[in-house]
Amino acid sequence: MNAPGHLRTALWLAGTGVPVLPLRASKGPMGNCTACRNTACGGRPNMQTSGPCTCPRPCHAWAAATTGAGILSSAAWAGAWRQAAAVGYHPGGVGLTVVDLDHADAVAWARENLPATRTVSTTRGEHWIYQGTMRSVNGVRDGIDIKSTASYARWRCAGTGRMQPLPDTVRALVDKTPTVARPAGGTVTVARPVRGGECPHRSPVYLERGIAMAEQRITAAQSGVHATVYRAFLAVLSAHGRCGCLTEAHIGRLFTAAQAKGESLRHCATAWSNAHAALGM
Predict the structure, then answer these.
(1) What's the pLDDT score for residue 248?
(2) Cα→Cα distances 234→99, 104, 108, 257, Å
(3) What is the arithmetic mean of pLDDT over 141-149?
(4) 225-240 vs 265-278: helix axis angle to the nearest 10?
């Protein structure tokens, strides 16, 4: 870990007006703080009801991103920076959209179909950065995610090339993608619950108990976290996934619990999708 270096980078970015936050080695944000765990502060897991989170700790992924040097350097954030493996930033907060190209084929597609713009090399592909904001959606094409509003991206460097205005060709990628539930700590595309089945819930207590039990099961895991998360997701979907009672907030709570145990957003989304497939949903 290079905590002092990450904090210096974060302070430099914040000084230029870019909202930043610390990221784990998994590229995921830090888990919710005690004050905001399970959205006790009233905000949704990955999107506040009105503006960025005002809690003094990193707690709601992109909404915790800040340009406040005093907050970034505060004692409340010191533990997060000690654990940080990278610096994240909120593209939408500075009027940008990042087209995240995750592998060589995705990069090749972008070079054939999108206007050239500022480019940042990543471990497996490239980030193409445009001026302008839009809705964030993962998986708009194989290996292509859109990160803008209500999302975050990993800061690597300023990149090369002249930044261009956000083109309609990028907006069209999202327009063709159905709106999906957004889990805690970011924007990952996950399947919606299947509607149309008979609802067995006589009161909201039944559903709440199921979600709480799944959260507790994940939180209590001492080993085999991947398997535990999958089994918890499977249990929730088998009981509550066919009648359409699961909401974005319920799914967000499950993802938040998994991320607090070190799971990445991508692992959470994969486990959720696998549970759907296992149940034939």
Answers:
(1) 76
(2) 32, 33, 37, 15
(3) 89
(4) 50
